[in-house]
Amino acid sequence: MCKSDCLRAVRFVITKDERIWSDNTHWTLAYILKYDVDVTVLDIPMYIVDFREEAPIIFDKNGAVFDSLFDIKSSIASAQRIQERIDKGWRPLNLSYKIINLKTDICNLLIEEGNNNVQDKNK
Questions:
Q1: Please, what's the largest Cα pairwise distance for the chain?
Q2: What gap in Å lies between CA 63 and CA 9, rounded to an integer?
Q3: Which of 62, 83, 85 is nearest to 12 (CA)?
Q4: E-assigned strand segments in the chain
Q5: Half-sphere exposure of 26 (CA within 13 A, CB side)
C-alpha cells in the first residue's frame, strides 16, 4: 500500500471524549511508511468526523468524501461504530501510542520478515 499510486482518504474520528482516532489504520500506516513520520494530516487525503457536538460534524479536505449524500452518511456511520465501541469501554482512556514508536515498530517487523528495502531513519 505504501508504494501504491492509490491515495485513499484517511478518516479521523474525534470522539465525544475528545480522543482522535485514525479509522483507516492500514492507510494511515501506509502514508507514514511512504512519506515518513513528518507527514501531516494536511499532506494526505483525509476527512474528519467530529462527535463532540450533538450532531456529528464532517470536515472534508479537498473532496476526500465523495460528493454524494450516501457517501457522507456512510462515512459518518462508520465513524459512529467506533464511537459506540468507545462508549462501551473498547479502549482504555490512558491508551496512547506515539507515531514515531509505531513507525519504528513497523519497520523493525518488516526487517525481521526479510524486507531489506525498509530503513528506519529514526534510529
A1: 49
A2: 10
A3: 83
A4: 10-14, 20-22, 46-50, 57-60
A5: 4
Supply the pTM of this predicted model.
0.67
Confidence of residue 121 (pLDDT cuts 50, 70, 90): low
Please write the tens of the pLDDT for every residue from 54-107. 988 888 887 777 677 888 888 888 888 877 887 787 766 666 666 677 778 878
| CA distance linking residue 24 with residue 73, whole number of Å | 17
Query: Helices 25-35 and 99-112, interaxial angle, to 10°?
Result: 80
Here the cell at position 55 is: 450532531
Backbone torsions φ then ψ of 55, nearest 5 degrees: -105, 135
Whether the Cβ atoms of residue 36 and residue 73 lie closer than 8 Å to each other:
no
pLDDT of 122 > 60? The answer is: no
